[in-house]
Amino acid sequence: MKIHTIAFSPFEVNTYIITDSTGECVIIDPACYTIQEQKYLKEFISEKNLKPKVLLNTHCHLDHVFGNKFISEEYNLESQYHIDDKFLLERFPDMAKAYGLNTIGNPPISKRFLKESDKITFGNSELKMLHIPGHSPGSLVFFSEKHKLAVVGDVIFAGSIGRTDLPGGDFDTLISGIKSKLYNLSNDTKLYPGHGPSTTVEIEKKSNPFAKGAIL
Q: pLDDT digit string (tens) for 74-125?
């Protein structure tokens, strides 16, 4: 399993493409904001001879779904996300207007809702998920125990956590989920956040000022 990272938009959101030896891949949080960024992502996928099979959102804040419409139409994929974040997609036009953004179409409202017990399969690979609300009500973490990697969205960053002052956010809920669920992954699991550099479970347990340690 291999993970590619591309940062898009003024928000510098990390879009992740996870693939394996078959060439099939999942696209997580397509954040391509401009036509040029859409073209770059399409060319990247083509040059790597990848075959997109699944479109996932860790959560549905507007900066993480800028490219949903493009990917859905380009590869005939319906985005999959937690139902508790559906209201964020419904509010996308108003939120974009509030930020003064000229977006390229609104992300479609899909019906492919995910829950924590679900598994995502592509090629010869599998991703499991954790539901860790607090940054948004439906925030999901996609992870592979075998390959010791987790795409965590804005649940946690290197040395920080996602903001909890947006609609549906809650600080205590987020910290509880990080400690009781995310920190149960092996210490050497590499964490790939929605913004900024990667980190590991061990590093965040030891040094994250908001979420040190774990709930035993």
A: 999 999 999 999 999 999 999 888 888 888 788 999 988 999 999 999 999 9
SS3 category, 2? strand
Beta bridge partners of 113: 81
Q: What is the DSSP string of 158-201?
A: TTEE----STT--HHHHHHHHHHTGGGS-TT-EEEESSS--EEH
* CA 137 – CA 10 distance, rounded (Å): 24
Distance of CA 95 to the CA centre of its chain: 19
Q: Residues near 80 by Cβ (< 8 Å), separated by ≥ 6?
A: 54, 55, 56, 57, 110, 112, 113, 114, 120
Domains along the chain? 2-207 (3.60.15.10)
Distance CA 174, CA 136 (A): 9
Least Cα distance to 81 among 57, 109, 106 occurs for 57
